[in-house]
Amino acid sequence: MRVILLVLGALALSACQIVYKLPTRQGNVIEQKQLDQLQTGMTREQVRFLMGTPVAASPFEDRRWDYVGYYKSPRGKVSSRVVSVYFESEKVARLEGVKALEGEKAADKALENPDVKTVLREDKKAQAEDTRVESEQGKESGVILTPDRSTP
User: Check: CATH 3.30.60 for 20-126?
Assistant: First the structure.
């Protein structure tokens, strides 16, 4: 009987999502300020110093390096980016995926390289939105809750 209650309690708590989900980061950390410094004519060493080691570089075809960045926030927002660097005679000949996407929001940019302040600010916004929605739901029901005034 206790086992059944324990299992039911665990299922009920898992449905509430009180378990904190860690942010998921995979691949390279790609920042726009690094990409702004990339230029055609740079050597492989300069690109590696600026961007780091590429995630995808074929040992048989060394003319292309791919930098792949993926980030999933605890709230489920996904941000991903692929930057390809093409070399000809050991110099950068062409770049793909360097320009920022048109209409990209500031929140999406924060997902690329989140810091503690950004994460806390986004959590506060989400909490404020949740309390606003809860208060609107309370108004719609027609029930007005008054504070307890029995204690001085």
Answer: no
Q: 96-139: per-residue pLDDT in tens?
A: 888 765 545 544 554 455 566 666 777 787 777 767 766 665 55
Which are the contacts of 93, defined by CB distance < 8 A and separation ≥ 6? 40, 86, 87
What are the C-alpha distances in Å from 78 to residues 26, 45, 72, 99, 127? 11, 31, 4, 19, 20
Q: How far apart are CA 25 and CA 113, in angstroms?
A: 10
Q: Does this model's pTM top 0.90?
A: no
User: How many angstroms separate the CA atoms of 152 and 149, rounded?
Assistant: 7
Distance, in Å, from the CA atom of 72 to the CA atom of 28, rounded to the nearest integer, reads: 14
Which residues does 96 contact at the CB level (< 8 Å), separation at least 6? 83, 84, 86
User: In the chain, what's the furthest Cα-to-Cα distance?
Assistant: 83
Structure tokens at 67: 């930098």
∠ Cα 23 64 31 (to 5°): 35
For the chain, give the percent of residues with pLDDT over 90.
Answer: 15
Return the pLDDT at 106: 46
Top mean-pLDDT range of 7-21, 38-52, 73-87: 38-52
